[in-house]
Amino acid sequence: MQKVLLTALLFISMLVHADEKIIQNMLDGIAEVESLSGLLTNGDGGKAIGHLQIWKITVDDVNRIYKTSYTYQDRNSVQKSEEMFIKYLSFWGKQYQKNTGQYPTEEIYARIWNGGPKGYKKRSTIVYWSKYLKTKRERYHEKIIKKPKSKYCQENVQLECEDPKSRSRSFSAPKIWRI
């Protein structure tokens, strides 16, 4: 009985950490979508502040839920903004799971961040999700595409590319990756 209980607790803690890991991995992409990674720190007519474009209601929500004392000025702090981001999405992700019986995905988290606790239900957040995906794809694209070795490669966006006359194999990036 103790082994079963211990295994269940370990599994649950792994899921909690998996959710936090997903949320942390989203930070750069969300910051890029929200503020061009901090270049535009005032949005929505001055209502959204900081590199993650946090609204006052988000600060109030995090403080109410976690009994913290973040201030509206804390939205300008990268560290505190990221703490609020993780706390907000962790809480509302768990609520999503309770309500639907499904684990939240990156899409669910992104749509909640954009549209509030029930943002995953709003049609308006689909556009935001698309922007996030495009940003993520571009970042991935930048990481894996190597500098072309010939004019042929530059024209055809190829990875590990050589001239077509050589016998080496090349791999074309799928059309969806192309910008």
Briefly summarize what is shown.
The chain is mainly alpha-helical and 179 residues long. The protein is built from six helices and four strands; from the N terminus they run αββαααααββ.
- How large, in whole angstroms, is the Cα Rg? 21 Å
* Low-pLDDT sequence parts: 11-16, 149-179
| Helical residue percent band | 55-70%
**What is the string of helix and strand elements?**
HEEHHHHHEE
Let me know the number of strands: 4
Strand order of the largest sheet: 1-2
What count of domains describes the coordinates?
Answer: 2
CATH architecture identity of the largest domain: Orthogonal Bundle
pLDDT averaged residue by residue = 79
Annotated CATH topology of the largest domain: Lysozyme
Q: Just give the CATH class of the largest domain.
A: Mainly Alpha
